[in-house]
Fold each of these.
Amino acid sequence: MTKKKKKPYFPNNYDAVASCPSEWFIPIPFDDFMNWKIGGYELPSSINCIIREKRMDTGEVTEYVYQTARHGRRKAEQIMNEGVSELTICTEEEVHHLPPHYVPEYDDPLA
């Protein structure tokens, strides 16, 4: 029996931010904060995409974070081929919501 590989440490900046004094942070009204962080999200440069999977049969939500587009694409294809989950895919440019059994509309120029 082979041992499962431990996931590598994913670096973050929590210690650096937590150690900063509160005077370094500008106070901001709640509504402005919500518009900035929720309406205008930003992904760190080390992250290519975030995939959130909601299984329709169990209601379980799982989130995957990928540093490369290739790995994110593979995971999205795997989930879509199963056909039991709805996906939300977040990239730097946009957010996509794909229901189960999603077939993208394709306008064939040769047809």
Amino acid sequence: MATFTLNETKQALLKLYPLRIPVLLNGASGVGKTSIVREVAEELQMPLIDIRLSTELPENIGGVPVPIDDDSNYFKKILNKDLTPAFENGAVLFFDELNRSTSWVRNAVMSAFFERTLGGRKLNDRTYVIGAINRGIEYRDVEKLDKALLARFAIINVSTAIEEVMDYFDGRYSIATSIFSAKLEILSNKIYSENRYDELLPTLTYRNLEFAAKVIETYYNDPFLRKLLYAVIPPNVADVILANFDFVLVRKVLNGEDIEADIDTASTVLAIIAGMHISDEEFLNALRFAKRFYDKLGMKDGVVSFLISVAKRNRDLFIRNIATINKEFPEVKKLVDP
């Protein structure tokens, strides 16, 4: 399983925010989940609404029905908790201790994650809904969350590295940091043994694959891509998907450079390019690379397969370059309408 340091957790939360993927933080109590969410709220320039679900009643979250007037049979919901920013200008809505709450309370907040409503009211488009659970040793007896429910989240397992803690302390407690640093290994082992928790593994469903598709489509050129995928699909599946994936090679091909690659890597690069929004020049560079590469292998149909993929996934690009394709690659002229 893959864990995220505090810095990685913050980075993941900021990158997942525009994708509208519900996020669930998992970690031992005191690991720093709330602090990171607070930093994310500050960076997004929105207020943080921190709600400890273990101490809340369902009506505090979803509201209570009350008569509109004495003679009416209609009801409306009045929210007891001040959630106004989440409805009006946007806020980071943080539901902590989700697994220590009652099923009634969880049902009241699920609409915020999945339907972006709360108490029958629509959340502001800017509002970021984040959940958190504590799964340390002391919480072995808390109610387990349903697997079908967990499958609807990106799951970030938060684990603090001792070096991160020292960096945080250094600017605030210089003397104490010096003393702690001399005992770093002992402290690290002790903290780990006292704060172990059960990690959660993202599930593999069509919904999670769509999460992965959103992540790849947005961050295919980001070094953090693999880590983000670890939050939305099982890490071993993410590794399979990203096998032979190297965007540096993709960029070189689009720039007209030659690359050394085996057939699996070259095929993956060309498959990625076939679905990208690229310029005519980049497309022709990729087409020329495909011809050179497949000609070396004696695979005359390789370039044809690439063009068929482009024609299906990026037809406008294909049509714009018909004349050049016919001129430079007469062997594939049969693909083009006369």
Amino acid sequence: MIYFVIERKIPDEEYRQVIPDLDDYTKEPPGLPPHLRHIILNKSSPTMDPLALPNPQTVSLNHLYCTAIKDGMMVLGGTHRYREKYFTVVFYSIMPISTLH
């Protein structure tokens, strides 16, 4: 059996990292994708049962949703799926008075 060994000389420049510019760190973050703006908790119930919510979009699962602090309270929520069932967890947090000013 004959084996061939091919050597490739790679210049050192290909392995160097570019130092990011300061403008890369000070840019505004990208906007929220439109499909994540449809929060299931902001929709009305399709039935007369106020506890029944519509099935969420698949892209909105496993995302953490946060409201702005209003009246000293912050609300966090997320919707998850286990097999064919969906469950939504909502956390209400009262902000200390010292952080509101």
Amino acid sequence: MPLGGMLLDKREPVEVTPGDTKITVPRAIAGVILIIIGIIFCFFGRRFYRITIFLLGFYIGAVLAWIALQNASKEGYTGSETGSEILILVVSLVAGLLLGVTALCCSTFVVYALGGLAAYLLALFILSFADGGVIKSRAGRIIFIVAFIVVGLVLTILFTDMAIIVGTAFIGAFSIIMGVDMFARTGFAETFDSFQNINRDTLEYRTSGRMYGMLVGLLLLFALGVLVQWRFFRTYKFGHSEKRNRFGWWHRRRRV
């Protein structure tokens, strides 16, 4: 999944080929976890406050650890041996659990971070719509991603209630599709993995019907998640604040 920095060295281009990655035990475990977390986020993100806060911390911690280990490896997750995959998975899960527990102690900040995470994944989603990435240069991709994160944070602060529904629905849809691709191997997971690699400047991958199918599926799941949460859970109180929000839901709020 995600974030980059700029290194001075350039290595050989990353080539993403659908179907080349084997279904290993660590990959299957990661797929199941992503699907379960994705379902909770996409359809119940606003309904279960404490669970959502914990999973947000878990997700952010696991992603940051995954990125760090990915870039510390010359081959990255998708090209490593099973032993390295297990190490990356275990460390990412431990980091996720630690940050998830920590998130429960600073829930207000984590709610705002939700917008940044959703915007980050949205930036990756947009980048994947063209061969080699919509933005070709590494520096350009980094600037694009960072700008999206900043905008996501600001919008979440200004429109918190709406951002909770939209943000959790998108994060959930992204996670479900990523988890499915751990088994389907369409190239979706490898594409997003390549965007995280800060050691590469050029991405050599080709979009395909299967890849576009996964992207369309993500959008459909996102729309469905927003509709479900808006219809059934928008009146639920999310957090400890009793202040009236911009949409006037306070008088109908129910505690979880």
